[in-house]
Specification:
The protein is α/β, with parallel strands linked by helices and 305 residues long. Helix content is 31%, strand content 23%. Strand 6, helix 4 and strand 7 form a beta-alpha-beta unit.
Length: 305
């Protein structure tokens, strides 16, 4: 294997994930792996909600461009930051072992918040599901690196972050409460790392295939198919989580909600084909459970999806 250039964001979590993949590549025989740090729109613009600066793509577009343009050979992302459709010329080549996909409260437990208490979260998915559980809660924005988020959460009362981020940064002691997936449906691909490279780089694709966790990759494929069918991202209150059940069967649960949390819809499908399961689940929530009637859902017809 040749020496490689790995594109990543510069945040502590992004660097941790990039270093993890770097070590895996070195162990697999790469003579050298250089990190290429890229500053994204999401890194530059920190004073407005993510949905206003491009949603999920705000944290990955410039990193993907570095690979597509030849400034790097591969890119490492938090898989939850990827838009549902991969740009032409790139491929999601590898998903290493996934860690905890759940959300976690920092600052206080949910039952410790007083009536009318405040929760810091910029995620419409998290806000909607928490409002369903506690209609009395109020919400404020939460942006920045993990240290900034924890500080903001403590000052506010509580905040919600991905458990995986705390675990990877050695901050699990900051968790006040883990929110189980039947309480808070995770963001699509939360807890997973995504590695992209150019479609025509056969040598690197073969090397990355050896680092792939097939169960995690299948789960991410199903969740991303759910997202792609709905055409949403972090701008709409949706979530999905896939696990491998008995005999290798995929079990995929999805969630759609109104922004105010007055309506939360869930369903679960089982089967073998990740993409088909994700599409089927999305269409069931849309057409069979009333998801098309929720406010702010510019969603496809069954024939289009």
């Amino acid at each position: 294997m040749r020496a490689l250039r790995l594109a990543t964001r510069g945040s502590p979590l992004a660097r941790y994930q990039a270093e993890l993949v770097r070590r895996l590549l070195l162990d697999a025989g790469a003579p050298e792996v250089e990190l290429v740090v890229v500053r994204t729109t999401g890194d530059r613009v920190t004073d407005v909600p993510v949905e206003r600066i491009g949603g999920q793509g705000a944290f990955v577009k410039e990193v993907q461009t570095a690979v597509a343009g030849g400034a790097a050979d591969l890119a490492v992302h938090s898989a939850k930051d990827l838009p549902s459709r991969t740009p032409d010329g790139l491929v999601l080549a590898c998903v290493p072992e996934r860690v905890d996909p759940r959300d976690a409260l920092v600052g206080r437990r949910l039952d410790e918040l007083p009536p009318g208490g405040t929760v810091a979260s910029g995620s419409v998915r998290r806000r909607a599901q928490l409002a369903w559980l506690r209609p009395d809660l109020t919400f404020v924005e939460l942006r920045g690196n993990m240290a900034t988020r924890i500080e903001r959460a403590r000052a506010t009362g509580a905040g919600v972050v991905a458990a995986a981020a705390l675990l990877r940064l050695g901050l699990e002691h900051e968790m006040s409460q883990i929110l189980e997936t039947d309480v808070m449906c995770p963001q699509v691909a939360q807890g997973a790392i995504a590695v992209e490279c150019r479609t025509d780089d056969a040598e690197l694709r073969e090397a990355l295939d050896a680092l792939d966790d097939s169960a995690a990759h299948r789960a991410v494929r199903a969740e991303r198919a759910f997202l792609a069918t709905l055409g949403g991202g972090c701008t709409l209150p949706l979530g999905a989580y896939a696990t491998t059940g008995h005999g290798g069967e995929l079990v995929v649960t999805g969630m759609l909600a109104s922004r105010d949390g007055h309506v939360v819809l869930r369903d679960t499908v089982r089967g073998g084909d990740p993409e088909e399961l994700g599409r089927t689940l999305a269409l069931r929530l849309l057409h069979d459970h009333g998801g098309r009637d929720l406010e702010d859902w510019p969603l496809p017809d069954r024939a289009e999806a």
